[in-house]
């Protein structure tokens, strides 16, 4: 990774983790570049990267200020990766899986109606690679991303396809997060195979249901990986919504 990217990642993680709170004014480029022993142009480029992702804004005389969360580009793959580098905010996790539950089951239903032989081949190869390598390896996680990417492409909806980078990043980083302290207790490949079988059969309702169940189980796995959760919470995103405000205030 180039120096500006490394600086942007460091600052980005501090911002999304709350160490640098909204409204915080970052150090000026002369001081910051001196502390990091990098050129002023490298630091300036790092700030531009953060600004492009909505994390900061620079104004004359005011300096560079950390933005409110509503301004962050949360679906940016880099921002998603930074969120999962630390302990993700529970509300953000719920929001992320709410989005996945709104998007992916309907994409699966469309894929069941519109998929081509090439789409099915890509999904099948990804499934086989997931089973061979497991999600404990990079090869297995890459295959998992390939499966979800192929499904979104098979939906035949260009707007859904533009979410591919965001959805696959969410899948990849939440999978890494789940395994921080111990291996996955549940094999997710059968859940993916249910989706694939429904898409192959052209059964839109079955595909929608199978993908919704896959996302719900992924949510349980992810929230179970948070510190203090010794047992799996038996609830899915749709059931967690009613308690989201209470959970956020804990």
Which terms would index this structure?
two-stranded antiparallel sheet, 2 domains, disordered C terminus, 65% helix, elongated, Four Helix Bundle (Hemerythrin (Met), subunit A), 250 residues, mainly alpha, 13 helices, Arc Repressor Mutant, subunit A, single chain
Word description of this protein:
The protein is mainly alpha-helical. It has two domains: 69 residues, Arc Repressor Mutant, subunit A (Orthogonal Bundle), CATH 1.10.10.10; 172 residues, Four Helix Bundle (Hemerythrin (Met), subunit A) (Up-down Bundle), CATH 1.20.120. 65% of the residues lie in helices and 3% in strands. The protein is built from 13 helices and two strands, in the order H-H-H-E-E-H-H-H-H-H-H-H-H-H-H. It has a two-stranded antiparallel ribbon with strand order 1-2. The longest helix has 25 residues. It is elongated and about 60 Å long. The C terminus is likely disordered.
């Amino acid at each position: 990774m180039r120096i500006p990217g490394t600086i942007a990642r460091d600052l980005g993680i501090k911002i999304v983790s709350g160490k640098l709170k909204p409204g915080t004014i970052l150090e000026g480029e002369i001081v910051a570049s001196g502390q990091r022993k990098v050129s002023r142009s490298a630091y300036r480029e790092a700030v531009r990267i953060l600004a492009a992702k909505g994390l900061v804004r620079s104004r004359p005389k005011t300096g560079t200020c950390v933005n409110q969360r509503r301004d962050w580009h949360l679906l940016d793959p880099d921002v998603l990766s930074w969120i999962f580098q630390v302990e993700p905010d529970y509300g953000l996790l719920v929001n992320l899986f709410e989005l996945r539950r709104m998007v992916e089951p309907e994409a699966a239903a469309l894929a069941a109606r519109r998929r081509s032989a090439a789409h099915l081949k890509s999904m099948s190869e990804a499934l086989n690679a997931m089973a061979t390598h497991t999600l404990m390896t990079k090869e297995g996680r890459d295959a998992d991303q390939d499966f979800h990417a192929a499904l979104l492409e098979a939906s035949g909806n260009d707007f859904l396809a533009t979410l591919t980078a965001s959805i696959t990043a969410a899948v990849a980083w939440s999978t890494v997060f789940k395994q921080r302290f111990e291996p996955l207790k549940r094999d997710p490949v059968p859940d993916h195979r249910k989706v694939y079988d429904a898409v192959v059969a052209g059964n839109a309702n079955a595909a929608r249901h199978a993908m919704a169940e896959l996302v719900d189980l992924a949510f349980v796995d992810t929230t179970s990986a948070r510190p203090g959760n010794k047992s799996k919470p038996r609830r899915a995103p749709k059931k967690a919504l009613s308690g989201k405000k209470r959970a956020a205030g804990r």
